[in-house]
Amino acid sequence: MKCTWQEGNRITLLENGDNYYPAVFEAISQAQKKVILETFIWFEDDVGKQLHSVLLRAAQRGIQIEVLLDGYGSPDLSDEFVNELTAAGVVFRYYDPGPRLFGMRTNLFRRMHRKIVVVDESIAFVGGINYSAEHMSDYGPEAKQDYAIRIEGPVVQDILLFELENLPGKERVRRWWKRRHRPEENRFPGEAQALFVWRDNDEHRDDIERHYLKMLANAKREVIIANAYFFPGYRLLHAMRNAARRGVRVKLIVQGEPDMPIVKVGARLLYNYLVKGGVQIYEYRRRPLHGKVAVMDDHWATVGSSNLDPLSLSLNLEANLIIYDRQFNQTLRDNLQGLITHDCVRVDESMVPKRSWWNLGIGVVVFHFLRHFPAMVGWLPAHTPKLALVDPPVQPEMETQDRVEAEDGGKT
Questions:
Q1: Which of 275, 271, 265, 323 is nearest to 299 (CA)?
Q2: Neighbouring C-beta atoms of residue 96, cutoff 10 Å
Q3: Which of 52, 70, 115, 299 is catalytic?
Q4: pLDDT truncated to tens, each residue of the chain (412 aa)?
Q5: 2 catalytic, yes or no?
């Protein structure tokens, strides 16, 4: 399928689980026919149990519900927790479930990282928020700062069609050649416009990255990018420097209190190149940053699941919404500017690695690695990820085609 810019949408920014979970749970509770939910992480904690409860009640009143979880991100839900849902009729699948080796998860790459909910044909949610208590502000110092959006309008139909095409039983057209999709042009810019974009390992390998590149090339005044795991390829780094050098205020918000220490190490390897090129870098210090959002000038914005790192740009299944709307842009811009003003430390010369032959050598190696990483990924062992139904004893009655997919594993 190919999505186009859709007009007449109503898009609401949702910050953290405090705003996101009530909105999602309310939409599911009001569903009339169907709910599709997919996420990377679903934990069996207070938030996960609330989701379980609202899905169970919806299923018991006859709503058709399909759930897709990532086999790496959500490996520990108990049989009792899952079977109660499947007994009520919920179709429950894992993406690429892998066996453990010495207690460790083995399916490290090519994750289903999207966070999408579609309710009937009227409401959708897209963003970076998983279902776990650590996305609530009362979780403590390690609570994550994150974003999602609630969507109503014509673009919901595109999101629904995308979901339906990626369910088992929908065989894709396979071509021996790989088409390269260009970023969809917004030929008639206006307000309340939205475009659904995704990344897969087939014909949409770099769609999200190319929208970022085009955005940076078109920027006139200001760009703010907030990204949790920032370690992009050379093209995107070069585009950020080029924008800054022609007078655009390019502001980058990265983790200053990361949930994984290696994140800060990786990002700081890039500070010299970016700061010397005029990019303003801010380390968010209040708590771990988990957002994947950006704004440009007065209209353009994006919210989604895609980080700007090798996993998201070259391996994972991701989804973002590109938004062209002055009011939404201003709302997200004000939020990000508030982070910069109150909770960030700007990177200055003292935080940039000193120039030396050693640092220059490391920089060259890093740049070339980043530039060629997508090609290197192709050397990894190729496999067809599976969509697998949870094991019996309890599973709802399904159509024959779905039974075949349950036995053989569907393709995604």
A1: 323
A2: 21
A3: 115
A4: 788 999 999 999 999 999 999 999 999 999 999 999 999 999 999 999 999 999 999 999 999 999 999 988 898 899 999 999 999 999 999 887 565 555 555 556 678 999 999 999 999 999 999 999 999 999 998 999 999 999 999 999 999 999 999 876 555 545 544 556 677 888 888 999 999 999 988 888 899 999 999 999 999 999 999 999 998 888 999 999 999 999 999 999 999 876 666 556 666 778 888 998 999 999 999 999 999 999 999 999 999 999 998 889 888 999 999 999 999 999 999 999 999 999 999 998 777 766 666 666 666 666 566 556 555 654 555 445 566 666 544 444 444 344 434 444 443 4
A5: no
- Could you say which of 113, 211, 251, 299 is catalytic? 113
Active-site annotation holder among 120, 200, 259, 298: 120
Q: Is 115 a catalytic residue?
A: yes
Amino acid making up residue 232? P
**Pairing state of beta strands 193-199 and 318-324?**
antiparallel
Q: What is the DSSP string of 114-172?
A: --EEEETTTEEEEES--BSGGGSGGG-TTPPB-EEEEEESTHHHHHHHHHHHTSTT-PP
